[in-house]
C-alpha cells in the first residue's frame, strides 16, 4: 500500500505525512452483539486538501476540482470505514482508499475531442425522428371534412 510509519506515498512525487491526517474512532453500527457496543471500531479519516502544506498549488487545484463530490465546504476530505470488527483493519482500509482516491484525483484528465456525427448516424437519427412523428400522428384525432 505504500504506508510507512510516518508518510503515505501517493505517487512518486507526493507523500502525505500522517500528521496531516486526523482519525476519529467511534462505535460501529449494525450487527455484532455486545462487542459492537463496547469497541470503537468505526474509523473516520479527515484530510484538509484546501490547506495541506504537502500539496503544491497545481496539485491542490487538481484535487479540489476532481474530488469535489468527496469534499465538504471547507475543502476537507472525509472517509469512513466500519466494515471490519477490527479498528486496525478499518484504519488500513480507509488509508488505502485515501491513497487510491488521491492518486486518481492527481491524474490529469485528457481533454475531450469534439467530433462530427457521421452521415450514417445523422440518417439513423432522422429516420428515428420520422418514425416517432408517425407514431404520434396516429394518435391524433382524424380531421373531419365538412361537405
Give a description of the structure.
The chain is α+β, with helices and mostly antiparallel strands and 147 residues long. It has helices at 33-38, 57-66, 87-106, 119-139, and strands at residues 7-9, 15-17, 21-26, 42-48, 76-81. A three-stranded antiparallel sheet has the order 3-4-5, covered by helices on one side. The N and C termini lie far apart (86 Å).
Mean pLDDT, all residues: 84
User: What topology, given as strand order, has the largest sheet?
Assistant: 3-4-5
Order of helices and strands: EEEHEHEHH
Tell me the distance between the termini.
Answer: 86 Å
Shape: elongated
CATH class assignment of the domain at 7-106: Alpha Beta
Q: Compute the gyration radius: what is it? A: 27 Å
Uncertain residue ranges:
none
Main β sheet profile = 3 strands, antiparallel
Question: How many H/I helical runs?
Answer: 4
Strand content range: 15-25%
Pairing-aware structural class of the strands and helices? alpha+beta
What is the CATH fold-level name of the domain at 7-106?
Double Stranded RNA Binding Domain
Helix percent reads 25-40%
Would you count the extended β strands for me? 5
CATH architecture group name of the domain at 7-106: 2-Layer Sandwich
